Fold these 3 entries.
Entry 1:
Amino acid sequence: MEIQKLILELKFKAVRSSGAGGQNVNKVSSKVILTFDLNNSQVLSESEKLVLESKLRSRLTSENILMLQCDEDRSQLKNKSIVIKRFLSLIEQGLVIPKIRKATKIPKSVIRKRIKDKKNTSEIKKSRRNPDV
């Protein structure tokens, strides 16, 4: 995956932030909305698209478009860099394939020790009983 080519496929839109902030919020479009069309991506292979589609299903629109937004900073440039970092980490995490867990076999020595301990406990409890007369 080529990060620079992937970044070129992103579309950005600057809008006014909501919430408190006074006149600055009313004048400046500092909130950045990133959109990425998963289906029309030239950088990702078909298998990568399928993996991302399944892992990011809850974050994608019905047309398989990923939308991220950032309005943390007053600077549009900083918000843009923050949202790009979020996007790249999301894609990297989505493409990670977890290792398949192999069940470990219990060693025979451990099984023997457990049975020996059970027998020993049984003998101790038998010795505590009242003898039958």
Entry 2:
Amino acid sequence: MRTPKTLATSLLTFSAAALLALSAAGAATAAPAPGKAPTDTSGVSSHTVTETGTADYWTPERMRAAIPGDVLADKAMQRSNNSKAALKRPVETGAPSKIEAAAPSNVEAAAPSLLSRDLQTKANASESPVPRIGKVFFTLGGANYVCSGNSISSGNKSTVSTAGHCVNEGPGAFATKFTFVPAYLNGAAPYGQWTAKALYAPTQWSSSGNMQYDTGFAVMSTLNGQYLSDVVGASGLQFNAARGLSYKSFGYPAAAPFNGESLKSCSGTATNDPYNPSYMAQGIPCNMTGGSSGGPWFIGSSSSGYQNSVNSYGYGSNSTTMYGPYWGSVIQSTYTSAAAA
């Protein structure tokens, strides 16, 4: 039985020095996912989902038994340390840009999440469900996994953000049976289960698992003839923002001491990763565990802010810091491709 790890991705249950020692060790790569072969254009990798039966596959029992996605991030971390060349280049940046949020057709559905509050530094806090934020379920290598995700503003009204390791092994196969359950709470799916029709990741992630780019996007199919953001709303986004901002992050930690059945949050001012500065990541006070991977980071003190990163990784079994990738021009380009699909 796998011992649960205690950070959103819990990527390192050993010291940074020990991790570097793994650079000589290889890691198996799963066979490509079934369906249309992944495409790679302009630094963006994508995969068209062709499998059927996803809506029926994710029963409450399978959801509860899904493995927190930290184990996938752990493997990706080890593989990325086998090839340090890509990490010697700084994250590509461009001019700051924003995409505005989109309200759901039923504005009252999102009202609770629009409340603003003063920022208080917290390692974890219980939250009421937010319509846009939910759990992500998917299959890789024959196993079922769980992460977190968020409905984001897009031209197709159907795009969800999450961690790169929740859509692609980094490098390796793309996920199958990818499903988003917004406002999940104790097994309930108040807005239904939304299945993906396409997955997107930066090529730097899908080809080498470069931790600088641990972000992915999923384009969801319509449900009952409706688009995702028309039902739950969609968060605004910001790219190429200043570093060192204050954030509030959300996720569904599933590894002990949490059970993944309710939404949690963390908040604080971001600081650079002192252990692996080449990742260019920033961290905030947080002890959410596996399952919260891919949960959104919002600038400011509430979920009404611009999303500017996702839960990605942490260090050690008792870490109190969550790290997220810097959203520069590469991740922006990946978002642009997904949002237009």
Entry 3:
Amino acid sequence: MKINTNTRSVNLDPRETQFVQNPYPFYDAIRAETPVFRWEQYGHWCCATYADVNALLRDRRFGRQILHVASREELGWPETPEHLRPFYDFEQHSLLELEPPVHTRLRSLVSRAFLSRQVERLRPEIANLCSRLLDQLDGKSEADLLTAYAIPIPVAVICDLLGAPIEMGNQFLSWSHDMVAMYQARRDRTIEDKAVAATLAFSAYMRDLIRERRGKGGSDLLSELIRAESEDGKLSEDELVTTAILLLNAGHEATVHALGNGIKALLEENARNGIGEGHVEEIMRFDAPLHMFTRYALEDMDWNGLRLKKGEVIGLLLGAANRDPARFPEPGRFLPDRANASTNVSFGAGIHFCIGAPLARLEMEVALPLLFQRFPKLRLAAQPVYRDAYHFHGLERLDVALR
């Protein structure tokens, strides 16, 4: 890594092995030298302090989309490559990529299902699911807890909540992995083609499922969204398809890695007793599953000493903000009783605060203590290795000895 304080720029390959495996020393060095910097490999500005990231997440002068306030011609953007049109046609209806008023309308249709008091009703079902998965590990001496535990839990839970067939879980996973790879640092034409193919296949499947369910009623979230489309006209079919797929994708991608990273942290820190809310919040702060979220400047402005033009991108380094000593003293220590751990930015903030945060927290609060109660001698069987998938941050495997 090379830091140039004169130009406020950083040369750092996000695929560099040391960075992928432990980005935090890099974040610390950047924060100390130039906390707002241009990341040369990405070609846009980034910020690495908690104060800046937290403020930008809430600043309405920045947004997740830009084409609602500027044309491609105005921004100097080329037309979308023909081979990527299906992917971006799909994405334009994504809650994650929208701004008000469309964002407000779509979020209001799904937010009720993810309120804390609503997801709390799922606690017994999640506990039963975890117990069944742990039963399958009885009698074994070793296991990869990522595939045996961290992946099946959120996949099954979001399928059940949405009303999607659980037997399609593995296929949903495959499609989802191919689609979110579009946001990884190692994107190339092969990844793009797979993402487009997955988008088309997932969309076709979801349209068929919606057609089959339409008019049949039901208490699951998909049935509620279908009613909003057909009865109230609050949702177009394209919006319905994209929203359902987004919920399936987002409902497991981050939580899988939060669980995997969390089990790793608890084992390495020997913090296996009395696991509760404090452990969950500290896990999210200590080793977040998503390390960068981007925003567009929606207008020309002066921000933090920068002259930003409308349409410029700025990267919010969530992983760096969560390790900022100005906000979290001794940030490299895992402290379950940390008073302000819940102020971590792993779930975002502002209008794009993660709608599934209560569900993700509940899954971790249930799954982690049950795991250590069932296998009190649990320990790492091999050094965990993180996937080369920045700006996502999760393990390839989690090999453990159970006894």
